[in-house]
Every structure is written in C-alpha cells, then in structure tokens.
Design goal:
The structure holds three protein chains of three kinds. By secondary structure, chain B is mostly helical. Chain B has 13 helices and two strands; from the N terminus they run H-E-E-H-H-H-H-H-H-H-H-H-H-H-H. Chain B has a domain of 190 residues: MetI-like (MetI-like fold, Orthogonal Bundle), CATH 1.10.3720.10. In chain B, strands 1-2 form a two-stranded antiparallel sheet. In chain C, a hairpin with a 6-residue loop joins strand 11 and strand 12. The chains are: A mainly alpha, B mainly alpha, C alpha+beta. Chains in contact: A-B, A-C, B-C. The interface between A and B is large, with 113 and 120 residues.
Chain lengths: 288, 321, 437
Amino acid sequence: MSETGAVRTLPVGRSRLTPGRVVLGVLIAALAVVWAAPIVWAVAASLRPFEYPLGSGNIWFSHRFTLANYFKVGSLAPFGRYFVNTVVVVVMTLAVQIVTSTMAAFAFANYRFKGDRILFQIILIQMMIPTAALLVPNFATIRFLGIYNTRLAIAIPFFGSAFGTFLIRQAFLGIPRSLVDAGVIDGCSWWQLLVHIYLPPSLAAITAFGISSVSFHWNDFLWPLIITSSDQSRTLTAGLVRFTQLGEIGAQWQYLTAATLIVAGPLFIVFLIFQKSFIESFVHSGIK
Amino acid sequence: MQRSKNSSNLQPVAEAGPGGPGVSVGGTKSKFQILPYLLVLPTLFFVALFTIWPTISSFVGSFFLQKLNIAKYREPSFAGLANYASLFQDSTFYHVLGNTAFYVIGSVPVSIALGFLFALLINRRMRGIGLARLALFHPTVLPMVSVATIWLFMFTPDYGLFNSALSFLGYRGPENWTGNPDLALIAIIIVAVWKNAGYYMIFYLAGMQSLPREVYEAARLDGSGPINTTVRITLPLLRRTTLFVTTIAFIGAFQTVDHVFVLTVGGPSNASNILLFYLWQIRFENLNVGKASALTIVLIIVLLVFTVSNFLISERRSGNE
Amino acid sequence: MRRSVLLSVLLALLVAGTGLFANGTTETPASSGPVTIQVFYPVAVDAPIAQILNGYVTQFEQANPGIVVKPVFSGGYTDVKTAIQTTIQGGGKPPALAVMLATDLYDLINAGYIEPLDPYLAKMKDSSSYLSDFYSSFMDNSRYNNKIWSVPFQRSAVVLYYNKDLFAQNGLSAPNSWASLATDAQKLTVRNGSDVSRWGILWSTVGLPYWLFQPLAIGAGKNVVGPSDTEVYFNTPECISAINYYNSLSHTYNATPPGAQDTWGVSPGDFASGRAAMIVHSTGSLAGILKQAKFNVGVMAVPGKQPGTYASVPGGGNLYILKDAPQAQKDAAFKFIQFLTEPDRVADFSIKTGYIAARKSAYSTKAMTDYIAKVPQAAETRNALQYAGKELSVQDLAKVRDIFQNYLQQAFNGKLSADVAMQKAQTEADAALKEFK
C-alpha cells in the first residue's frame, strides 16, 4: 500500500544551491567519508601485495595492486562450498521463520484467547537470551535429534523467531478493523483472511524482517562453528575464523581484509543493488 | 486509504460483544477455538525447545557445583546457592557489572542519537544521498568479527587510521586504545556505535518518511525554525520508533561480544570485560559450569526486567493516547 | 498479487523441505571396515596448513589401508577446545585426536578428556629413545604424575628479531644483556618531533602478556613457574626486577611505547617495514617476516640480565588422544601420531610452516640441512630453545594466568608498583591453587 511517492516530512529543498544547502552537503559528505573510511581501507589493504607490509611508506596503497591475496585466501579454505552452505542455511532459516512467525503473528493479532499475553511474553524471551549462553544445552539437543554437523542443525534453533513474530504482529495490528470485519462478513475463512487481508499490506514488514534475518544469519559466527565439525556443512564465517585467529603470527592485514571482503561481499553487493527497495520496505513496515 | 493508528490494542473491537477465550474477530459465538493455539504452536515449539528448555536446565544447573578442571568436582553435586554466593563475592563480577553498565550507557544512547541525526540528514533529496546512506548503513551487513578486526588496525597507535585522524584534528592524548585500561572500554563502545548507528538510522528514516506533511506545513507557517521543529515536532512524533529502537539496541548491547574477543580479550586487567564475555570465560576457560549457569540466570533476569518494563510502559503509554 | 504471495509461501516451504535433505554427513557410526578417525586441528599460522596436513593424511592412508583420517579445521586453539568441550558435555563422542595447547594439560586431565599415552608407547619398539629425541623444553608440558599425556607437534618459542643491517649501520653488535638491549634500543629509536618513526624495540604486553614476559623473568634468574603444577613464583625479586626493566625501556630509555602495549598483531609488519629495529615475537612469524623484510633478519634468544645469558620460553600445540573415543580409533590415532612425528616429516612440517621441529633428529635430515643453508634463521630459532624455561602451566591455569596478567598490566600501566602488584598476584594465585595441593 503505497502513497503517491515518498512523503517528505521536511520542507522540500529548493533545487538551486543556497549556502545552507552547500554546507549541509559538505557535512553529509564528510560524515559519509568518515563512516566509510574503515571499509575503504580494508579494500585497499586487500589489494596490497603481501611483500609490502603496512607501515612502510603509507598505509593506503603501495605502488602495486594485486588480487593475489584473494587467491591465497581462497586457497586456504573452501569458500565456494561455504558460500553454498551459507545460502542454503540462510534461505532455509528465513523461509521457515516467515511461515511460523506469520502464523503466530496472525494468531496474536486476530484473536483473543486465553493465555495470549503470556504466550507472547514467553516467545519474546527468545529475543533476550544470547545464543552463546545456551551453547551446551542446545548442542545436546541437536545431538539427541541426530542432526549434528548438518546445515539443518545450524538453522533449526532459529526456526521460531520472536523478532519476526513481534514485527509481523506489529504490522498486522495496524490493519484497520473495518477491513477485517468486512472480510469476516464476506465469509472468509481464517486462511483467506490471512492471505487476502492481512498479508498484502504487511509485505513490507516481512521484507524488513527478512533483511534482519539474512544479515544476522549470514554473519553468525559462533553457533555454526560449534555445531559443525567439518567443512561439508560450514558457512562463510567459519572460513573467516581461520584468518582472525592467527595466534602465532599476529595480524596479516592483507589476508584478513581479503577474507573479510570475501565473506561480507555477497551480502554487501545484494544490499547495494536492492538498497532503494530495502529502505522502502522499512518505511512501509509500520514501525512507527 | 488512511491507516488507523490503533496499533496497540490486542483486542478486536468488541463493543458490547462477549469476552472470553478463543473468541474470533467479530464473532458472536463464544465457542472455544483451537485455531489460534495451533497457529502459535510451531513458533512456541521451537522457542521452547531451543530457548526455554536450555534456560531451565541452566537454572537447575546453577544450583549444582561443577568445575571441570578439578577432578573431584567433575560430576555435578548439589550446592544450593553456593554458585550465586561465589558470584556475588567475586570482585571481578562487580567490575564486570560496572563495565557493562558503562558500555550500555555509553553505546546505546549514542548510537540511537546518531541514528536519529543521520536520518535527519539523509532524509532529503540531494545528489548522492543514496551513496551517503549506503556509507552510513553498510557496517550493518558486515560480520562483527570482521568489523572488529578492521578496527584493530584503526586503533593502531601512530599510524592507525583512527589515531591519524585524531592527531590531524589536533588530538594529542593517549593513543593506546586497546592496551590502556582507561581507554579499552571506550574503544569497544566506538566499534559498537560505528556498527549500529546506521541500522537505527534506517528505522528513523522509515518513521520520518511516514510522518504527515500537514504538521510541518503548519509549523513552517508558524515560523518555527529547523531546530525547534525537530525537537518539538519530529522527535515526539517518532516516540514509538525510539521505543522500538531502544529495545533492540539495549538487547543487542548484551548479546554481542565478538568485538571484545578480537580487540581486547576483556582486558587490560578486566577493563573491558562485559557480562557475556565474562560468562564465556567462566564457562569455557575456567570450566566452572555451575557458576556459569548462575551468571546466565543473572544475565537473563537483568534483560527480562528491562524488556518487560519497557513493554509495559509502551503498552500503557499508547493505551493512553 | 495474492497468488504470488501464496506461491512464494509454497516456494518457501519447498525450500525448507529440501533443506531437510540438503545435509552433510552426520556422525559416522563405528562399523566394520576402515577405522575412521577425526583430527581436530587449529590453524594458527598463515601457511596452507590444510594442504600440508591433507598431504600427510594421503601418505598415511596409503601406507595404512584400513584407516581413514579426517582432519577438521576448527579455527584457533580456543575454538578447538570449545568444540571438544561442547561435544563431550553435550553427550557426543569426541574425535580421536586433537591438537591443543601444550599448556592445557592439567585442565584436560582434570576434565577427564585425555588419557596417558604410556600404554601406546609401551607397544612401540624403542619408546625411550623416541621420547628423548624430543626437545626437553617441549616435553616438559607433556609429563604429569610420571606419565606422558601428549606429543609435541607444532611448537614455537619466543625470540628476539633484530634488524642486522640497522645494527651494522649504527656500529652495534647484537645485544647480549639487559643493559646492551636497552641502550641498543635507545640508540635505534628515531623521532621527528613528537612522532616516532622508528621504535628501538616493540614488545607486546596485551593479548597474552605472560608469554612474552616470561623470558624476562627467566633472564632475571627465576622463572615464574617451576616443575610443580601448584606453585607459582610471582612475588620474587627476579620477577619484580623484570617488570621494572620492562618499564624502564619506555620510561628511561624511551625506546618502546609506554604502558601495556598492544603490538602483538602489528609488530611483525612494523619490523619488516623498518618501523621497529627489534621485536620480541614468536618463531611462528619468521616465515612472514622473511617474505616481507628487505634486510638481513637476525634471530636470537632474548638477552638475560647478566651479560652472555639468554632466555626464551616455548609455546604452541601438542597432539592429544581423547579418552572417550572408541579404542579402535585411539589405536589408529596413535599410529598417525607416530607417522606425523617421524623425523623427515617433522622436518618437512617445520620447513613449510615455520614451527620449530620438535625432534632433534629432524635437524640432521637432508631437507633440513639444505633449508638451513638457505635460511640460517631456521637454525637460530632452534638454538633459542636451549635457553628456554617452562611455559607457565599450572592447575586452574586460566584463572591463575588471568590473575598474573591482570597485575602485570597494572604494573605496566603504572596503576600499581611492581612489588605491590606481584604481591597481590601471588596472594590471589596461591588462594586459587590451594585446592589442588
């Protein structure tokens, strides 16, 4: 449900340059430069030949560029397989999360039933407890289920999502009663209510949730490492770990940054392409 | 079509309708419906299995003495409140609590405020604004481990980017961010803020772009300047966004310690040791299972207290609107 | 629009469904046929460890049909230990073999994760000469209660790297005492204005401060730890003088950044690029330094207090057999240990990775002698071993080490004087160790 174009809250600036606008532009540009400096440096460092350690000359660019670091890093860990595994895990997690969260959100938003408040609070507890604190018990459960060292094991603790339920419920609650009542009067079953009345205006919220989920699980580090014991099912962050923990030798910036960019790259590029629609989805997600 | 603003009520509009359990929307029957329970069941199942159950087992475990690095304590033995006593008598625990409080107070308001300011700046039509938005948001899509590693370089004394920038601006103070006990926690806060401010900016952007134009037109006609407008109009209208962002920011501050692992390992001298990291140490380095369970429960209680009160306050407030 | 929503939901369910089948292998059940063992292995250097190890595995499997070896690369030492802990405590079977820190010995014994290797050694042809071929400073961390619990594998030591060209240019010879180390560092520090463009020496005391500090204590005359697993010696005049010496390097000689310095990650790069004339670091960084430095790199043990004395301390990881693995796997694992520690292989591993070869006879192999002819520093790292004292390893190690490092850093940062700091450290450490006596 989109209004005609994005609503401007501040007065639309006149399109000719005023001193105020110039100053503002400079300020924003400076801010962006500062904020982006670390990642720009990381890119520069990853292209720097290993023979030129940082600190000599300058820290930005030596006089040669090379992709050798990427090849070296790529050879030290099976990033191709990691990439596939990460995609599988992330998509699987998100798909199930959307289904379960939408159903639960629908229940909480559309019905009043005994214990609904308590159940909602119980579910919200998940948002509060860090996974790291529950490593060992969850490991035991995974073992009990017989799925140790699988991609399913990485994903399954997150199949129920408190955050998703919360966000989607929020969006559902914003749907005008009149619409819902109209649907009921028309004789809609609960399924039709959900699909035709509740879902369409809430797609934006679901997208917003999707972005959060993908970001989180793409970059999740500790749990996937613990619950897998071979490269077969591991995700991209596992490859990263080999370069951040070089205990014996200190920081090899060229390799560290190359590995980081390999891991973070895909997500980054996806965001680059879909920036506008991602932001739009947050706008319309009903978080006000 | 106007969207109604009653996003807080849990009940369907039930004028004189019957209350009671399992009442479906607009229904006049009061028969018990199993459907909502079934719909909630999958989510509940997974949350119960992977969050609630392990928490309960931690709770039970907190009453048992079990230290894996001492042979005679390898098997758990009932110890009552001994673990909690050991925790509350540990001076490091209080140091950690203090650090955590400082960290949360230092990182959460700052990143939210920055998020809001960024949104104010970014919320306009200007050439290249998309690029600026990307620059501010991109840390969110990077893994924290990578972020911390990059900042390891930033904090390098003398030629690290952060220190170069500071000295360019005239700063002549201490530069040993990760080795100086007075600076280590600040370093951790800086990294957290850099990573999160852009994420909160998006929520505020979304909120701002949904605000009604009429109010702003009226304010402009009244001669309200930009600062006044922001403080008196924008900020209050975004109260719900602020509440939402505060909740996830607060919870997030307790949940991420990857940067501590990479940058300071809790030091020097426990100067940057925060709750979750301390939990890690007790559990996997000191191998004190019982005490770690006790600390887990303490951590959960702290978070519960905040979140529940936050939720109640928000419910009550919007109920009064 | 609605149809597409429905479609996407169905698609999602489909993906989720296939996800249930898109799995890697679950735990391999013990079966008749080849014995399969897993080796949990940390990657702590940037050498292509996976390739090297996989190469050894292939050779081993060819020589031993009936045994399949699966290396699992789990991150750093911490991750390996965590993975094993989580596995065992979660009720799973641990891998048969793992490489973990040599200093983890007591924790692993107390937790019941490892078992002594004596029964396996007894079946060997000549176990006593096998054991005595390992450098004694490495074997120190394998003995407890008159039993052998691990075999040294990827070991390193703390050394002093120095820029030979810079020394020659300034008319200096390699330092051989605390005094000459300090004055050399002072002379080689270059400042312009308030900036330092070259430090005389970089000596990290953040991260794992105890390791780089131990040679100073040893060089002062008394190590912080002895043969006992329940005694530490922090509050000694030697240790205190070591701390004061370290502080003097910055306060008196202005040759190193003041306070607890976090230079572990950057010092190899700084040294190679000429921003530091000397660094104290691990032998593991040698390979990287040699690749980057454009000058003559000197390697030596850390000078001791008295002229002509030197000190070092070992580090790194050993091979452990995990107790709860099935016996057939454990037997196979020991065969693999023997294979990995054959002198030729030890030499090959050392050359390719930069770790010190753990066996003396490895240094007489042809491959090694050829290598040393080209890279004399490789012999110098081994030479530093003769001055090595025992690496800090006692019961409740994590806690005791934390206490030590806490107070060390306070002394370095000037929050406490060295003697007060060490007194407190000693008291707290003794309290922690009391249970184990």
